[in-house]
TrEMBL record:
It is found in: Membrane. It comes from marine metagenome. It is a multi-pass membrane protein. Keywords: Membrane, Transmembrane, Transmembrane helix. The chain crosses the membrane at residues 7-23, 29-47, 59-81, 135-157. Its main location: membrane. This is AI-2E family transporter. It holds the Pfam family AI-2E_transport. One of its GO terms (cellular component) is membrane. Belongs to the autoinducer-2 exporter (AI-2E) (TC 2.A.86) family.
Amino acid sequence: MKRENVIFSIIFGLIAILSIFLIQPFISYIILAAVLTYTLFPVYSLIRKKTNQPRLSSVISITLVVVLLIIPSFLVAQRLAQEVTGAFSNFELSTVQRLGDYLSGLMGNRVDFQGIIDSFFNEVRESIFEIAPNVIGSIMELVLGLFIMFFVMYYAFRDGEHILLRIKQMLPLETSLKEKLFHEVRTVTQGVLYGQ
């Protein structure tokens, strides 16, 4: 083998490995995009028949995904966060202090529950400040992941039929086996998504 070919192969291999590491955190978003595209492809087809514009139909289909799936998920998460915050704000320290006084009377020595609770909340506050950079990083990863998901969905809606045709052509199987394979994949996917 020529020296140039070896160097090219090594560089290509390193770039391929680096690409895998870069894409790895977003594989779940890509798979979710494929599943959502497959699930909503009949809706996309209906919209495309009415608009006769694949790009616009793809954008409308993705907008439906955002409206029907993403926004309700964020609203539920926000409501859950409000409930947790409300539980902490409704937490009356005087009740705990009275309970502490009662227990201190039973045990015979004074326990400073107010100090323990203050210390606990200070530790929680410090922990929140420590994990804040991780939360911000997670939010950025989520935003980037959603962008990748919508990007994949756009092209999967728009060019999905052509992509499937290319995959069928590239498979090293007989035509009857290709059709059987795609039929089985379709059946299993529909069974998982829609129930049996």
